[in-house]
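Dig into these lines:

——
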Amino acid sequence: MRKSIAFAATALVLLLAGCSAGGPGNGGSSASTGGNGASASATPTGSITVFAAASLQQTFTTLGKDYERAHPGTTVTFSFAGSSDLVSQIQNGAPADVFASADEKNMTKLTDAGLIAGGTPAFATNTLQIAVAPGNPKGIADLQDLTASGLQVVTCAAPVPCGAATHAVEQASGVTLRPVSEEQSVTDVLGKVESGQADAGLVYVTDVRGADGKVDGVDFAAASKAVNTYPIGVVQGSQHAALAASFSAFVRSDAGAQVLRTAGFGQP
C-alpha cells in the first residue's frame, strides 16, 4: 500500500509539473506569450532628432525631457526654426526623424513630396497676438494702431506660418501693415520687441506667455480669423521610425496636451 501511495504521489507531481510547463492554452504558455508581447510593445531605445517650429521651443524642450524620463535609454534632440526653413532642410536631406510644423501648409509640402511616413495628426492650435513693450508705452489697442506713423513694427516673412497668419488677419480686418522688417521665425520677431529694436510685433499667444514678462500681449478681434493648426509626422526614411512614432504619440498624449495647454496652445 505504501508503494502504491508513493507511486500515485509521484505521478501527481509529474502531472502538475507538466501542466505548469505545458503546451498552448495553459498558464505557462500564456506567461511566455505575455512576456514576448511586452517585449514587442516596449518603447525602443536610442536617439531621434526632432525638427520643430520655433514657436514650439519651450514646450517641446519640456516634452523631450519628460519623454526621456518616462522612457529610459532614449535621447531626444531638437532643431528649432521657422517651419518653412525646416521643410527646406528636410527636402535637402537633413537627418530628421520627426517634423512638427506650425501650420498644415508646410507639412503638406513634405507629404506631397513623399517625405513623411504615415499620417500627420494635429496636436495643437495657436493664434496671433500683438507683442509690445511691458506696460504698452505706445498705447496700442488693436491692429489698426500698428499703422501709426513712426511706429516700428516687425512681422514674420510670408513663407513662415506666422507670416501667413499675419497676411490672413490683414485681409480679414482690412488693415495693411508696413513692417520695418520681416523675420524668418516668430522667435526673431519676439526678440526684436524684447530688445527694444521694435515697438510691436505680431507673434503667437504662446510666445507672449513664454516671454515671462519681457513683453505684454494685446488681443485683437481679427486674430480669430487665422488659427494655426500644428501637425506632427515621422520623416520618411528615419532610421529610428519606431522611436519617432513613440515620441509623436507622447506629444499627443494627455501628458503632452497638458504641457501644451499650460503654454497657451489650444486643442485641435
About this structure: The chain has ten helices and eleven strands. Confidence is low (pLDDT under 50) at residues 1-40. The longest strand covers residues 46-53.
